[in-house]
Amino acid sequence: MWQAAATTLLDTARIVLGTTRGGKWMDRETWWWNPEVQAAVSKKKASFKNWQQTKQQPDCEQYLEAKRAVKQIIATAKIAHYQDLYNKLDPKEGENAVYHLVHARNGATEDIQRVKTIKGPDGVPLQKDNDIRDRWGEYYKNLLNEENPREPCNEVPPVLSPIHAITRVEVENALHKMKVGKAVGPNGIPAEAWKVCGNTSIIWLTVLFNKILESGKMPDAWRSSMIVPIYKKKGDVQQCSSYRGIKLMSHTMKLWVRVIDAQLRAASEVASNQFGFIPGCSTTDAIFALRMLMEKHREKQQPLHLAFIDMEKAYDRVPRDLIWWALRKKQVPEQYVSIIQDMYSGAQATVRTQCGDTRAQPVTVGVHQGSALSPYLFITVLDVVCQDLLEPAPWTMLYADDVVLCARNQGDLERKLQKWKDRLHQHGLQINTAKTEYMAAGPNTANHNTIHLDAAQSPE
């Protein structure tokens, strides 16, 4: 069902819309160029040549008149272009265009935007295309399949309650939340293709998603993704570690994931300490609560000690067995667990390099990057793992994988931090001590510069 529809949709789009290779760059000095400007400039050039040949005053006046006309036409063309640009930037969809303009302007000023040559594990630059592709493939194979040591999860009995079928309203809401102008995955079908099809696509997608719900198997084409390395703008440009991999997935799979994400959120909940990726909550709320806590302690002349925990590659390192265990601990119906397991079964990725694409590599650890469901899966894991360590907000607050711990003295804070470190380590998650920060506020805290976690110190 999926393969036939995908082929038809792509073939029709090629016939109606055509194809483009991208990468075309227009000179920033001639973005306003159009046929009218070209005709006026050609007339001015001809008038100038004629005047140079005759040296007559009438020909000089004709050239000056043509020159004034060109300036007027160019000014009109620029105004029209800016007006068209403002109209494109005005709606919500124009946000993407704004970012593209900013990135283009910023990229034009960079000395290095991309390189072909990359260094091997021994630090020696690689020259051959095959060697470069193999190096990228090896790097991401290790990065995406590395799991930290952990204790095995205990058995949790499944919840065998039924789940309701997917409705057209759910599909329509999920499609409405899909952003336009995003890079597509390997199958090449963007979310815009489903949006322009209107009600027809809603009906067809509802049927498709319900068939997946019944069978528990999504199309195999959705299991492939593409990783595009983007330079972090710091570090050695020839080191793979200086690049951030952006994963491009099937937009239709992302739509399917959004539908399941909405149902999963309705079937479960997380602690009120979590402010990340929860409707109605934001960093603004957490920051306000933290400021109020600090102000109250300042008014009463009492010290306050805070630790800001940073987790090491949290989304990339979370064990998948831990995800299924946490969902069952949350009493999530087993059919949802099986559906989510299928989303990760057989997942593989290729890396797009300057020398071509690498061979597909399996991805066996972590959650999908760019998936609407991934943040909720992670915060569910964190909620279950650290459930007994959570204190009422604002003494413990979380924004996804960022955690703030508060205490009235340094010793209590160190004990809290050590408990969090041990608990996370027990389940295969690690605290990044180099990026974990400590802050002391209030009277008699001038000498509190660091806190201790095992043998390491976190700076103030």
TrEMBL record:
<protein>
    <submittedName>
        <fullName>Reverse transcriptase domain-containing protein</fullName>
    </submittedName>
</protein>
<dbReference type="InterPro" id="IPR043128">
    <property type="entry name" value="Rev_trsase/Diguanyl_cyclase"/>
</dbReference>
<dbReference type="InterPro" id="IPR000477">
    <property type="entry name" value="RT_dom"/>
</dbReference>
<dbReference type="InterPro" id="IPR043502">
    <property type="entry name" value="DNA/RNA_pol_sf"/>
</dbReference>
<dbReference type="Pfam" id="PF00078">
    <property type="entry name" value="RVT_1"/>
</dbReference>
<feature type="domain" description="Reverse transcriptase">
    <location>
        <begin position="211"/>
        <end position="460"/>
    </location>
</feature>
